Amino acid sequence: MIKLSSSLLPVAAKSSGITSEPLDLISLVAMAHHPKAGGIVLFSGEVRNHNSGKEVMYLEYEAYVPLAEKMIYEIVETAKKKWDLHFACCMHRIGKLEIGESAVVVITSHSHRGESYEANKYIIDRVKHEAPIWKNEFYIDGSSLWGGNCHCH
Amino acid sequence: MATIQIQVFAVLKDYFKSEFEITGSISTVLELKIEMEKLNPDSKKILQASRFAIDEKFVSQEYKLNENDKVVVLPPSSGG
């Protein structure tokens, strides 16, 4: 049997954390290909044009970057160990985002799809609830509302 | 008397300047939270739901503050 050297695999560019650049889903998923992987799951959290019955024009995301990045790494590493993933990443975008853009991407790769789905949901659920990242919704009527304020909890 | 540096994020910026300082007889995170509530009583509900961090680590309400500590106040997350 041929043992695959890790040097044959794509070089790991920064694949998890916070970025102010548009998320390049294709480049990220290219990093997830792995000779042992049988199923790769990609989740993209997108900016939708409505929330709570109001028409949304665009969003702005803010993060406490150093802690948010630490927590994302920790969550991704925990998932990798828990499901024995071949690859996992989570990148969250900050700044102004237009409708239909990707705000967050999670990619998980495992020998079988079941584990890839489970681990992917674990990562996005924890990042959404725990990492210090916030969205500010800007509506068509000129008003705006921060997520994470007490009214919606 | 201690001077504590404070930085707030997201919705808390509707209630406070993003960075400011409080000087007073404040020895714990809980006492700091009470001082912030006095500065702006409308912030109480959000402060109750917020987390506090120093040096990029979460700290409890009982955490003993040191002079010139920089405390970061993080309202409930709404990423994704």
Describe what is shown at a glance:
By secondary structure, chain A is of the alpha+beta class.
Question: Could you characterize the architecture of this molecule?
Answer:
- The complex is a heterodimer of chains A (153) and B (80).
- Chain A is α+β, with helices and mostly antiparallel strands and 153 residues long.
- Chain A is built from three helices and nine strands, in the order E-H-E-E-E-H-E-E-E-H-E-E.
- Chain A has helices at 25-32, 65-83, 113-130; strands at 17-19, 39-46, 50-51, 54-63, 87-93, 95-98, 102-110, 133-139, 144-146.
- In chain A, helix 2 (65-83) runs antiparallel to helix 3.
- Chain A is elongated and about 50 Å long.
- Residues 3-12 of chain A have low confidence and may be disordered.
- By secondary structure, chain B is α+β, with helices and mostly antiparallel strands.
- Chain B has a five-stranded mixed sheet.
- The N and C termini of chain B lie far apart (41 Å).
- The model of chain B has no long low-confidence stretch (mean pLDDT 95).
- At the A-B interface, strand 4, helix 2, helix 3 and strand 8 of A face helix 2 of B.
